[in-house]
Known about the structure:
single chain, mainly alpha, 19 helices
Amino acid sequence: MTEGKGAGISTTSLPRLDRLPWSSWHLKMLLILGGGMLFEGFTLGLGGGTISSIAKILNLTTLESSVGATSAFLIGELIGAIYLGNLSDKFGRRPLFLASMAIILAGALLTILSFNFISLAFFRAITGFGVGGEFGATIAALQEFMPSKTRGLYTGTGNAVLFDLGGVIASLVAYFAISTLPINTGWRVAFGTAAILAAIILIARFGLPESPRYLVTHGKEAKADQIVSNIESRIEKKKNIKLPPVEPITIVQTEKGRFSTLFGKYKKRLILAWILNFTETWPYYAAFGVLPFIFTKEFKYPGAHVGLLLAVITAGGVLGVFVMSYLLDVIGRRPVITISYGVAGLMWIIVGIIYHFVPFGGFVGLLVIVYFFTYSAAGILYVQIGEMFPTEARSSGLGTAIGFGRLGGIIGSPLLILLLPKTLSEFNLLPIFLITGLVMIIGAISEIVIGPELKKKSLEEASKITGGDGKA
């Protein structure tokens, strides 16, 4: 039940959605809507895997390469997440998850045409703007369709694994494009594959429905009932079952604006979402963005082969996502998020202390372990954030939180680049890893202090403010 002032709507549509068994229909929704996460991982993987070639062709400094490929993308994400997330709560999930992917497609095509630092940064920012819109519209839509008992497992695993899979595929694409094609052509071909991926996802999304939760919240119960009935019919026929009846619930339409709701009684949860996003974005975007330079400049590893290393490290994160997402629905959101952030933070610090005393292969192996926990934090984070806010402000909550979080990458990536030492000695990479580790530990502490436990609750129950926030 959503609290607020306004007329109440009695509905069975939402509890009927929550009692649906997992099915091929849910898998289709997960793959098509999660395609936005696949694309983000893909385009960021391309950035890391091609950055050395781009820097040579466009005559960029190390700092310009980082800003053009990563920071500009994140600035676009920040703006897109806030602006398009707000529009998703106003106009619906479907119009925005179509529009955001169309913007992504345009940005990917334009990136191929980059000819200097400014053009690269601008086109990457356009792509990031579209990806930012994905967070509000698609993550909200996914959570609003998924059954409550398995929402943590499937949305956490699905989004994060697709993100990681995108990174792995992109790293391999970048490797083969850079190593087999002329240097001026290889990276452009790599980004051309990103445009093809965006076009495929966009076309697939035209067959998806609007979120019934959005429709009910906006007084369109009949349309929501029609969509849910269609889903039920497909699942009953596919599984040869008869779904049991449910009791109606009452949804109270709020008269407050979206930001009045968020900055009112939800401000504590909003602050938590900001902190968790910032402290997760820093290690992923900032540290992962600086790793190619550490490999090539500190360890003299061939730039053309960096994509393979990133693929190995990313693959390690996939296992972490599976394990931690499963535990979300077993032991709960708060302990799993705390463990992921806390252990990742400690591992970053440990790597910073001992990296000089292990061979290069050992260093890469340690990073695989680090990203087991770092990636899992990124995956499970969005499960909790989407659950913390009511339907009428869910996309805005996701958008503002994720937009704020991107500051971690925007600030962190150039800062860590500036901290890169001129020469390799025993501890001169320690500041990079120490800062990153401490940032993640702050995230763990914030979850302990503020985080609510929302395991296996319906979105209507999870989004209610209770005295249990910050308690196990």
